[in-house]
Amino acid sequence: MTGPPPPIHHASLEVSADDQPGEVRFWEALGFHQVEPPEGLAGGGTVWLERAGFQVHLVAVEQPIIPPTGHLALVEPELERLSDALAEAGFECSPATPHWGEARVKARSPAGHLVELMTGPPA
């Protein structure tokens, strides 16, 4: 295989139905917007959100599994602006140790998913 690897299109995160509205607000604060799933994939309690071609699918389940250390990492060159947007929406960001020469913060979504924001990808 030559050239860059294909981009990841989406990640599915389990959430409870009660947490789903807060999860939508969290991801909207990160610049995502709701999109309609393609015909045949709609329904089932899943909300689809998208930002710059990357989607997060919030799957409502009775007993969601939230990985204790696993996380979703987003590259965000405007880290301070996005951290401020999360704070304005009522979500906390915590500074994280810079890695690969890039600033990082971490936030927990309402369902408890760990989300890392970094100014650039690993070099």
How is this structure best described in words?
This protein has 123 residues and is of the alpha/beta class. It has a single domain, classed as 2,3-Dihydroxybiphenyl 1,2-Dioxygenase, domain 1 (Roll). 16% of the residues lie in helices and 37% in strands. It contains two helices and eight strands; from the N terminus they run E-H-E-E-E-E-H-E-E-E. The strands form two sheets. A four-stranded mixed beta sheet has the order 1-4-3-2, covered by helices on one side. A four-stranded mixed beta sheet has the order 5-8-7-6, with helices on one face. Strand 3 (46-51) and strand 4 form a beta hairpin. The longest helix is centred in the first third of the chain and has 10 residues, at 20-29. The radius of gyration is 15 Å and the shape is globular.
Task: Give the helix/strand layout.
Elements lengths: L9 E6 L4 H10 L3 E3 L10 E6 L2 E7 L10 E5 L3 H10 L4 E7 L2 E7 L5 E5 L5
Parallel strand pairs: 1-4, 5-8
Antiparallel strand pairs: 2-3, 3-4, 6-7, 7-8
| Shape label | globular
Radius of gyration: 15 Å
The strand order across the widest sheet is: 1-4-3-2
Q: Give the beta-strand count.
A: 8
Terminal Cα separation, in Å? 20 Å
- Amount of helix: 10-25%
CATH topology: 2,3-Dihydroxybiphenyl 1,2-Dioxygenase, domain 1
Number of helices: 2
Major sheet: 4 strands, mixed
